Amino acid sequence: MSSIIKPIGDAKVMGVYDILDKKVTGSKKYDSVKATINSGPTLDKALKKVGEAGINARFRRDEHFKRIKKSELAKKMMINEEDNKTFMLLDVRDADDFTRCHLLGAVHYPAPMLSRSVNPLLPEMYSFKNKEGKLLIIYDYDEKIVIPLGNLFFEKGFDNVEVLTGGLKDFGVQFPELIQGTLPEDPTLKKTVKKKPSSSPPTSSRSSTISYDDAPSSPSSVASSPSSVILFVTHNNDDNN
């Protein structure tokens, strides 16, 4: 016969289960407060990311940020108000490239600046970082710089950073009215010049001069003598073979 040890008294009556099942009541005052420590990817972050971007959002492998299409950014730029900006455009190229051409309203933010240990952000970026209803949109010329920078923003704790798909190169072609400056030429496009085929194939030749008997012997008398004629005969090398 096995002996069963029973707890003395009812645990629920004693209040043990009530303490474990008791839920902590939250306060709406602190609903907008978010964690400042980035603990890595979690299920809540993934669900929130999908919920904000929508079911048609594009996510690529090894990219921890969202993308924005050219047409969507153009709409935002047209309705964005100065007193109530919903996004901030960051041009991450060099200073010379930014001066030559950039999107209207963009702010120059060089890519190496984010890796600094002291003051890595612009002062105005703090009013957009992880703020509800606000975005930080970064772009370069052809996405070569902006992709690793977008992942670095994610590692720094930014959850509202989006990358312009196609970069300035594609956006400027489709929406030139939203570009300030002159869009640089695409270095990958090379102009090809077609040569017209010649009517006769070139052959190596040597020339010799044959003069008639009535031609004058001195060169100075050639111009004065109208009856002098000089023939240039061309001999092809094929005749010597």
UniProtKB/TrEMBL annotation:
Compartment(s): Cytoplasm, Cytoskeleton, Cilium basal body; Cytoplasm, Cytoskeleton, Microtubule organizing center, Centrosome
UniProt superkingdom: Eukaryota
Spans annotated as Disordered: 186-226
GO biological process annotation, one example: cilium assembly
Family label: Belongs to the CEP41 family.
Record InterPro entries: CEP41, Rhodanese-like_dom, Rhodanese-like_dom_sf
CDD domains linked: RHOD (cd00158)
Domain Rhodanese: 83-180
Keywords annotated in UniProt: Cell projection, Cilium, Cilium biogenesis/degradation, Cytoplasm, Cytoskeleton, Protein transport, Transport
Name of the protein: 41 kD caentrosomal protein A
Biased composition, class Low complexity, residue ranges: 201-226
GO CC aspect terms: centrosome; ciliary basal body
Keyword RNA-binding: no
